[in-house]
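Researcher: Sequence recovery benchmark, item below. Answer with residues only.
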């Protein structure tokens, strides 16, 4: 049976086929479209309230947009590597869901965006406990209809790890979606270091350095950041020793979502373009989706990395899929 057939069998949702739209043809143009096109999103119809969440001595923050409806679950949006509440893909999803009546929180991970000034430490691919801190400290009534969570890229891996680890707060999560998540961190890092990705690698390394220098204040850590020449060196010399891992390989092995996804009980949609230039498709293709009907995979041949700019609608295809999945599973 085709992947599309499996999807319809598991969810009774017709997500529709993804077909790239001109001029965003190919994985690279799909990937960089949000950067070069800078889509404008007006969220002013839904004024935001600043929320704060205590997390192990640090404070995370997010923006809470309400819609006036009490029958829709709250949707928490978790950005990816070097992102924040202002990331264009986060704002696009927020706009689409708010239009459909879903209240939204645009969350900043630990040490990211507006959270940075209030944190001593930063996020990493396995820091799933922070989502627990957020869910257990939501304002009274915010989660009256339950919660749904969306994670992009690294945020998607964090989300999947959280759901697999199943803390008590996970019972609040009625449905979840990950987009372009690096579920095998080791393979992903090797992919980004390939010669064809040298421009992407330079872009990510520059942003990771800037983010780390804004967060880390001790001279020894700042020196390590400045001396790092690859993203692997960031993981080996900074992330691993800072957060208790033996090295980059240990960090990747202990924090990748792929080995634990089978433990997820929540209805979860995983969207990944098979041509993603950053994240290999092999871990998705190797997973036994039939054995885990609570997990639905959408694996179109095209889409790039958090791209999915398709024909027929200016709303990214993955945002339309999120809404359809939530409409189905959240009533």
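Model:
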């Amino acid at each position: 049976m085709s992947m599309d057939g499996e999807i319809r069998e598991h969810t009774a949702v017709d997500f529709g086929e993804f077909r790239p739209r001109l001029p965003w043809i190919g994985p690279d143009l799909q990937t960089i479209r949000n950067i070069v096109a800078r889509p404008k999103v007006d969220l002013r119809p839904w004024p935001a309230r600043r929320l704060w969440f205590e997390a192990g001595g640090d404070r995370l923050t997010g923006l809470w947009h309400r819609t006036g409806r009490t029958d829709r679950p709250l949707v928490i949006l978790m950005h990816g590597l070097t992102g924040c509440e202002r990331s264009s893909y986060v704002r696009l999803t927020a706009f689409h869901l708010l239009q459909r009546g879903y209240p939204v929180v645009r969350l900043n991970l630990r040490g990211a965006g507006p959270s940075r000034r209030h944190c001593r430490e930063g996020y990493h691919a396995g820091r799933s406990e922070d989502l627990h801190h957020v869910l257990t400290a939501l304002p009274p009534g915010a989660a009256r209809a339950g919660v749904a969570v969306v994670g992009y890229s690294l945020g998607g891996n964090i989300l999947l790890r959280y759901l697999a680890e199943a803390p008590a707060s996970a019972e609040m999560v009625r449905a979840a979606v990950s987009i372009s998540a690096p579920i095998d961190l080791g393979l992903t890092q090797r992919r980004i270091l390939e010669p064809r990705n040298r421009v992407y690698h330079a872009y990510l390394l520059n942003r990771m350095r800037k983010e780390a220098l804004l967060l880390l204040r001790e001279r020894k850590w700042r020196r390590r950041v400045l001396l790092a020449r690859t993203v692997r060196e960031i993981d080996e010399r900074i992330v691993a020793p800072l957060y208790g891992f033996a090295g980059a390989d240990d960090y990747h092995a202990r924090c990748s979502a792929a080995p634990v996804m089978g433990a997820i009980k929540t209805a979860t949609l995983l969207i990944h373009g098979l041509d993603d230039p950053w994240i290999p498709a092999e871990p998705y293709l190797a997973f036994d989706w039939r054995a885990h009907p609570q997990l639905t995979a959408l694996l179109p041949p095209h889409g790039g990395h958090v791209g999915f700019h398709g024909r027929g609608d200016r709303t990214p295809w993955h945002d339309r899929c999120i809404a359809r999945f939530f409409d189905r599973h959240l009533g």
